[in-house]
Amino acid sequence: MYAEGRLTGTIHTCIGQEACAVGVVTPLLDDDIIVSNHRCHGHYLARYMDIKGLVAEIMGLDSGICGGIGGSQHLYRENFYSNGIQGGMVPAALGMVLAESKKRKDSISVAFIGDGTLGQGIVYESMNIASLWSVPILFVIENNLYAQSTPISLNLAGSIADRPKSFGIEARSCGNDLEDIYATAASMTEYVRNERKPACMIINTYRLAAHSKGDDTRDFDELKHWKGNDPMLAVRTSLGPLADDLEIECRHFVDREIEGIDGSQGNHGRNSG
Amino acid sequence: MLGEDILDPYGGAFKVTKGMSSRWPERVLTTPISEAAFTGIAAGMALRGARPVIEIMFGDFITLAFDQIANHITKFSMMYNGGVECPVVIRAPMGGGRGYGPTHSQSLEKHFIGIPGLNVAPISRFHDLDSFYSHFILKESRPTLIIENKKMYGQEYIGTVTEHRIFNVDLKGGPIPSVLLTPVSTGKADVCLISYSGGGDIAIDAAEELLMEHEIHTSVLILGSLSPLPLTVLEEAITDVSQVVVVEEGSRVSGIGAEIAAALMEQCFHKLRAPIQRITSGDGIIPCAADKEARFLPGPKSVIDQVLRMPGVS
Q: pLDDT tens for residues A147-182?
């Protein structure tokens, strides 16, 4: 669609990290608050299944969820907020759930960040306050091993898990497998909800597509290795013979959602899904 | 309310919040030294319907929260296509004159007047405190940066009056009015000094001396808003004067005076009889030593000298 000139600007896909979104969002309740980042499509779709609103937003259409003004990385709907500044939404997630806690006692916040965002001081300011004030927030660190083009070896010292732990925040890690992520998220969200305390889950994942549109400088063999560990493959395997039918159904669903989205003719969804 | 050291018995570095945490312990939160995070927390609270007020202990520290103000608080409503409001109120004590030196004395408001969606409102000793604060805290849908000049904390509060020293006092415009002081003797002026917050005191001292010592009738406009600028009020204040001088404590380039001068030129160029002049601090940092600081910051004398230098005046 970029080649056709129907999309402009930039985009950060979550291909390879879909399981993070689905696994973390699934156990959440309707009133829970999510803040996300530049790589927010998966989180948003897992929350609202609103393909039409998201695609229209990315295409800059008035019918997009933010009228085409926000675009790919500045999304808002009900309890979902994303912004394109690394770590900048983390304190907002604290503030939102603190305000909500005055109205109801069971909602929690979830803040998605990445390993690259761990370079931002505001993350640690927020962890300190979250622990100090017992804020019911789940920090989700999607560690995809890269901050844009910079590998984690040039970006991060020490241990990721030790960071939340040093603030007295419960932390657990999991792999890139959907069931593993879901099980971890379910138990950690339950902990945050019941104990009214922060927690942190670290998902060891990998981004299979470029950081944004086509700026990939990673080693081919490394990519090949991770493509073999694509969480979507694991989902397919676990579904057995149902997988093909489900995929066809999903593609039809997407096609229906975006058919005629910008008033022009043609099947936009042929290559999506 | 959130901020550093704002709980009783301390009550804030300048004692502005004294008594509040005793009266509303649940609603006054003392924070770690984390301006970025507590500004962001206030943003989140405001997004969910709360009306948070934050105190930046010294206005200089607001740079630590700049990203939250420029990329978050002021952007949410517009980038989410009007779906949310984020009416955070940020109080920032600005200004020097107390010997606090380079990082505790600045007037940084000029860096904020160009941020779309942000009200920048300087309070003066002539503004009604209740209506000023309650307007921004309770009624505004946009976020607001309130500029409080530190010197005012130790000064007598004047409030809404009709006369002050040798001036008539009128409130102009709204919802937060600007304050226009005109010499009682003539009711009009040859020179108009435009200022705000603590700069108003410099301008008033200068205007009084210009009349008493030099027989130059000088009015003073103390702005109630720096962003948006009250253009109608500004135009009225400069109508029929031969000289306009903007007095501000901040540095000169891209300052409040520059914006006012450009705005007046666009709005009513035909009414200006001479180039608008600016009185500002020096080009550098604010020294700690009292005598050096006094020479660096603007005072009544620098305003008077500027007015007397102008052609066609005196």
A: 999 999 999 999 999 999 999 999 999 999 999 999
- Residues of chain B whose beta carbon is less than 8 angstroms from a beta carbon of chain A are 29, 31-32, 34, 36-50, 52, 67-68, 71-72, 75-76, 78-81, 83-84
The CA distance from B55 to B1, in Å, is 8
Q: A213 pLDDT band (50/70/90 cuts)?
A: confident
Best mutation target, B27, B72, B79, B88, to test chain A (most A CBs within 10 A): B79
User: Do residues B268 and B295 make contact, with C-beta atoms less than 8 angstroms apart?
Assistant: no
* Structural domain span for residue A85: 18-205
CATH of the domain at A146: 3.40.50.970
pLDDT digits 0-9 by tens, B240-254: 999 999 999 999 999
Tell me which residue in B32, B40, B81 faces A67 most closely, judged by beta carbons.
B81
CB B144 within 8 A of CB B136: yes
DSSP state of A127: H
ipTM score of complex: 0.95
Give the CA angle between residues A161, A162, A168 to the nearest 5°.
105
pLDDT at A1: 82
Which CATH fold would you assign to the domain B2-154?
Answer: Rossmann fold (3.40.50)
Query: Domain B163-309 adopts which CATH fold?
Result: Rossmann fold (3.40.50)
Give the start-end residues of each E strand in B124-211. 144-149, 163-164, 167-172, 178-183, 191-196
